[in-house]
From TrEMBL:
InterPro entries xrefs: Metalloenz_LuxS/M16, MPP/UQCRC_Complex, Pept_M16_N, Peptidase_M16_C
Record domain Peptidase M16 N-terminal: where: 62-172
Protein name: Peptidase M16 N-terminal domain-containing protein
Alphabetical list of Pfam families matching this protein: Peptidase_M16 (PF00675), Peptidase_M16_C (PF05193)
Domain of life: Bacteria
Domain Peptidase M16 C-terminal: 181-346
GO-annotated molecular function: metal ion binding
Amino acid sequence: MKTENFRSYNQRVYSETLNDGLKITLIPKKDFHSVFAALFVNAGATDQQIVDEKGETIIFPSGTAHFAEHKMFEKKNGDVSEIFSAYGAFSNAYTSQSQTVYYFQGTENIDQSIKLLLQFVQEPYYTEASVAKEQGIIGQEISMYQDMPDWVSSFGLMKNLYRKQPLGEDIAGNIDSIETINADLLYKFHRYFYQPSNLQLKIAGNIDPTGLLALLKQTQARLTRPRINFSRVNRFNAKIPVKKSAEQNMPVALPLLAAGIKGSGNLPDIDTAIDLSFSSDLILDIYFSDSSDWYLRNYNQGFLNDDFSAQADVGRNYNFITFTGHSENKELFKEIYSQLKNISYSQELEKEFQWQKKASLGELSMSLDQLENNVFTIADVFNTDVNIFRVIEKLRELTYRKAVNLFESYYNLDSFSSFCVNPVE
């Protein structure tokens, strides 16, 4: 078992990759009474096409990953979440663009909960009847989102940025796509994406690493299966131009504006991805946070409200930036675009960068008081054993010049787009 010692945090992190490829990371924290465990599946909403071991192409409809996650808790003998509750644990799951995550937190019966987590995720149970029932449930969920202005605004922007690509589709899919999902398709999705070599288990809390690793090896030995070779088909295409603008009328009091930039994607390695994620956040803080001159000027002119936000998303094969907020003046789009053009290396902003970085380091360090923040990191979507403490070290090493260079390399203003939800007249 590999051991890393992070002395500044008085923290050891243990990791091992089992023979079947399952990656394990253990973070003992004796001052905590509870345990948080998460099983990461390196597959999300954008994983819609693969080439299997026979060289044949398999296409999964939009929404398959999300559908599989919804059905995973349902087994022949009942709902797995009820078993977690009987053990005294809270359980849940979510699907993102790049991954699916199943997790629990509890203070008792930890061994039983950990074994259950490994078992129920790796042993699917799908029937045509249960799939048909779920199609109705998810269909209602999709219809509900379409009546929510915030969702319409964000989704409209993503459709502009990623035309004819999975990132431009809702994680839940659409009414037509989920109707094509059946039990056989879900088993096939599980067969490729849920194999141990595509999984990562992270556990933090009051644990004994040695004893727990023995339990994990024993449990996994009964679940392991032969590795199946396949390759993902990356459907991200930076060459497809963005749709510059679009709008929709809805019953809102104020126009809801969204703008963004599609990045170039195709990050070469995990280190670049981590650096770009932090660089994007820090650059946006310098130029667009509520302490920036730009924000104060536009706020005083009435161009933006308190709900304005700017954020970056860096994942497997993609990166993008989004700006959202209510505003009665669409000139805000031009103001955002002009400010983006101003981003460049400036010695005058070196102190501001260092201040923002120090603030981010402080927030990350304080966040470790919550067990889940020891488990979830920006590196999770890359299916590596990079832990939160190594991520923090990467931030500490990041320089202002490198941050600007990365920002300029992976974002191009030619890929700027906007979307507006207008009040119904």
